[in-house]
Fold:
Amino acid sequence: MALTGIEIFKLLPKTNCKKCGFPTCLAFAMKVAQGQAKIEDCPEASEEIKSKLRDAATPPIIEVQFGTDSMKLKIGGQNVLFRHEKKFLNPTVLALEVADDDSEIETRIDEVLNSSIERVGETLRIEAIYLKNRSADISKYRDALERILKKAPQIPLILGVSSSDIAIDSLSILKGHRPILHGATAENIEEMAKVAAKFNVPLVVSAKGVEAVIPLTEKAKALGVGDLIINAEPKSIGELLRDNTFIARGALKKQIRSVGYPIITFAWGKDDFYETIVSTVGILKYSSILVLKRTLPWKNLALFTIRQNIYSDPQVPMQVKQGIYRVGEPDDKSPFIVTTNFALTYFLVKGEIENSKIPVWLGIMDCDGLSVLTAWAAGKFSASKIAQFVKESGIEEKLNHRELIIPGYVAMLKASIEDKLSGWKVVIGTKEASGIPAFLRNYVRSKNDR
Amino acid sequence: MKFSIIKESYTGSVPEITFGKNRKVSFGGEKSLPFLFFEGEHPHKPLISFEVQDSPPQDYPKELAKVYSSVWDDPVRWAKLCESFGAEAIALRLMSIHPDTTDAKAEDVADKLKKFLNEIDLPLIILGCNHTEKDAEVLPIVSDVARGFNCIIGKAQEGNYKTIAASAMAGGHSLIAMSELDVNLAKQLNILITQMGFPANKLIIDPMCSALGYGFEYTYSVMERIRIAGLIQGDPMLSSPMVADVGFYVWKTKETQAEDENSQWGSLHERGIIWEAVTACSFLLSGAELLIMRHPEAVNLVKYFIEDLISTKEK
Ligand code: B12
Ligand code: SF4
Structure:
């Protein structure tokens, strides 16, 4: 937590010597507290205050960066326990575990490279590979690493090795990469910490339970590794929830530095279903990296969606700008649809219009990012506002017809919109967006028949 | 440094609800945030009820139809099938009364319910169709028919709670009070209902459910806020057990219906099941004690999840 001006002042020499450029120590202290002056400007400041300030500037859970120049990933940095307090920072990174003796490494890499799915305007994907040294053989590991680098030179990496020799061997060939080094335990912490310090890479320390992890983070820190990540090795969902709660609470509520690090979780499960459930708990409850045993499209979709939901801003719904959007290449005969500017609504509706292959003018109304019914209930998607939007949008010049399609959920607005928009006819669409392709095809056909 | 466990201190607790006549089940009763066994008692596991509808559903997608279409024209057979899947409670949803579907009359539903109560001895939740006026008309009659069966009746909303709460009280039932994703509205409704003399320890909050990807984060956070207000801040009007009506919302989504081909979404079968299971498990973690679900495989997953959590209880 930040120090106040008075707290800083108390630790200054109070000689008012003015070497800092300020008339008094107090004035200087106030500026430092506001971030407008640096403690280094006072030649008399003690080491104690410098380290206190440095400490205070460190977030309770540190932020760690890894990856490559074109794929930089950030983890940690959280400052709340519950998402309603403030937006959760830095979404959980999903990684796939690949073993160095897997004969189909290339297939696994493809799984990661082809994992991306679009949802609500965002591209979601498995972001990293965890390369596990299952063979315990240094040349096998080197070989696997080279195969990954050849096929996916930019993919962020986590190196799962338990020997410092293999760690050094791998880190020496990784150029333009800042991988995470995983494999420090009570047995090898010194060597591994030295390697991490030498190559300046983040280090994962692993031990069973939070209490056993703490001496390891302390030791690694003393050996000069600042970017640490915790693996408390939970073996059941109950342990995962408990360990992660302890770590996050310890860091955020008690400012315990030795647990103030991001968490890595290795998902497990008797099958893909259960591994997805375990991963869900990790995403909901403070895991910063989740390593999956296997990826599958349906599993990815569920995990991407829950991550996107949980890491959304609780104060502002995702929204798109008001305006008339073209879907496909609409002309003056194309259908005209109106809906709200909630990002989810927009993307679902747009996606289904695209599926229909029928070009459409899509009118998006500013409703503060509320869904159709929510906006209607809040009076933001009312007949008069829709009428006003249509008039002011300039759509009338683009069309040679006067038909407006509204979402099925607000069918009750038809008559009053027609009242307020003279010359227009209102057509009621389906309730769910999934009905749009069939609806549009019928609509266009019946219009042509007329 | 020695790490001392950082425990939260709690001033409130969740009342325990028991329902059913011959076969009874209980849920709620905990004294700390969900599954944090190290800092408060959790006398009961969360309870999963299987949804059964009183008339053949018109909107069950393929994956649900595969499981239920052979029994769904008879609620008794449907419930027995659920029982064979291991159901510990049934949630009977009276969809036939909805004015937009068959607009069935209260008397017809009452007859169906009598038969149902005779044949099924699992603890029962009886749900209306979420149409404010129609529920206000039918649920009182239903409460009366089920008098003595110690059911849960739902859902009372701001617009109809008076008649529904009064009749649930007369029938000796517990009651679900549903508000719309807002802590203050949930509290307000509980205050109004208890002011009528309805016992606070027989109330269940439905903060309104939603499906993964479709408003999920709102339900998740409202539940967390309600639990924190009830347990940590000790607000008695926000400490009621919570229900998550998961299946109803999940099986409307595109993710549970779109076929496998041409999609990067993978197999529909697994996708539908995981959509319901992930939504359900998440809401257990945010505070729900009672779930209403549809797919038996999703239910099994959630049960396994609960057992896995409980396994740390003794340690
Ligand atoms: C999340 C949510 C909220 C969030 C807001 C989220 C948001 N960004 O909009 C919050 C918590 C803020 C909220 C508040 C309220 N809410 Co609200 N909310 C919901 C909830 C759970 C989900 C909404 C959602 O995200 N839907 C997903 C989007 C994508 O749906 P959509 O916009 O309708 O789009 C779909 C279709 O309409 C269709 N579509 C859209 N456009 C078009 C166009 C055409 C041509 C076609 C064919 C189809 C189509 O495609 C989409 C996918 O199928 C719903 C209930 C539910 N489960 O649906 C209630 C709901 C919408 N809310 C409701 C209410 C009453 C409110 C409040 C007034 C409650 C209150 N008293 O506080 C407030 C009003 C807000 C305000 N500012 O005053 C009611 C509306 C009642 C009614 N029948 O009119 C609902 C239905 C709940 C209920 N009672 O059942 N809510
Ligand atoms: S240089 Fe340091 S000691 Fe001198 S006035 Fe500034 S703050 Fe005070």
Chain A touches chain B through 53 residues (CB under 8 Å). The mean pLDDT of chain A is 94. The CA atoms of residues 383 and 419 of chain A lie 9 Å apart.
